[in-house]
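Standup notes
- HV: blocked on the assembly model, inputs below
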Amino acid sequence: MEILNQLGIDWPKIIAQIIIFGIVYLVLSKYAFGPVTAMLEQRRARIAEGEANLGTIRENLAATQAQSAAVLDKANAEASRIVKEAQAAAVAIAEQKRQETVAEAQLIITKAKEATELERTRVLSELKRDFGRLVIETTSKVTGKTLTGEDHARLNKEALSQIG
Amino acid sequence: MSSSFTTLLSSLPALAEAAVHGGAEGGAHAAPPAKHEVSAKAQSFFSDSHHWAAFLTNSVFVAALVTVIFLWFFRSAMKKPTLIPGKRQNLVELIVDFLYNQVANIVGPKVAISAFPLLATIFIYVTISNWVGLLPGVGTIGFTHHSSGLAGLFATSHIETPLLRPATADMNLTFGLAFCALISWFYITIREVGLGGFLAHTFTPPSMIKGGLRAGLFIIFIMVGIIEIISIAFRPMTLSLRLYGNVFAGENLLHTAGSLVHTGYAAVDFLSSVIIPIPFYFLEILVGVLQGMVFALLCAVFIKLSTGHDEGHEAEEHAHH
């Protein structure tokens, strides 16, 4: 008892200290251990979920990459086909246009020839007519006689035969 | 364990002598301690030991202050916990996570769930209380009758009752802590292994020992069990005296180091009282955390020893399953 007294051990003081320790315990449990362990657990769960999601994301990424590669390959093939088709179509169109141009040019040449022929015929006939008229007028003036219709026809025929 | 207990018992007369010289026959009106000595016991703010509030000692006052600090710090740190923690929340999480892992490593993950709050509280509370004792003014500012008025209330020399005393330099606190630890140890042990399991673990040979040898060892294990029960009964004393002795010795060390030089020149005395204790402050910072760790680790080991499964018994159980 003397020792207890010298060290100041006293039940009310012990109880007071126990109560204070109990308050500290409650404070720590409420504001530290509880929330922190819950938070750490939540974070662990989040990390585990993240890891699981990471696996799924990796799988999805691989699938997407494969899919995109397939789409790119398909697009490349399609593009090559379209380019080839376009090239073929361009060649065909160019050939068609060339043929059309040749045909048109041929038509223009033919029409020009026909027009030239008609013009030549028309000029020739005018020339013949004028030539015949000149021959008749000249003959009429040289001979001094009035020519008949038969004379006209005979002179025209002779003059024209001279022209060819 | 037994050697340390013997050492502590042998130190009791020295402590008692320090208490007598430290002066406190009962509160503020006791004889003032010598300049470099610290009272062995916490002193009440009320001179009448039968006063209803006589339990309000300078140690209880500091313990209450520490509690308020805890309340403020942890409440502000964990008011709105977020997945991406702030600085304070990060610190609290670091401490709690570290302590939980330490406790789980010793007592096992299953028992750690129930043992961790108590052990972590003990460690944090003891460590912070020890460190608070190193703050300027603790043990050096208080009441004296050598001055009158306000100067007598908050004097810095000839202190009779320090206003602040390290909470852990009070046997009432250390014994209270040890008592709580003992009750918690008993509760956790009974909950984990049951009363029969505890008695069998304490008084009977391990189940791996069979046949005649087991019968022969029975009486020895009963004797060992009795010694173990006595050892358990003394645990609160050993735990509390170890902590109290270390902190009280630290207080004495710092006071002694601070009053070593008496040249008669006030400036020299003042400078030496500031400079000389500095190395000891670093020592006491280390001692403060070590004592908190020792107290909590010992409690954890006690729990582990009483809740740890008998390997032979466990093997048998596995064989049955």
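- HV (later): unblocked. Residues 2-320 of chain B form one domain. Residues 1-34, 311-321 of chain B have pLDDT under 50 and may be disordered.
- Next: hand off to the docking folks.
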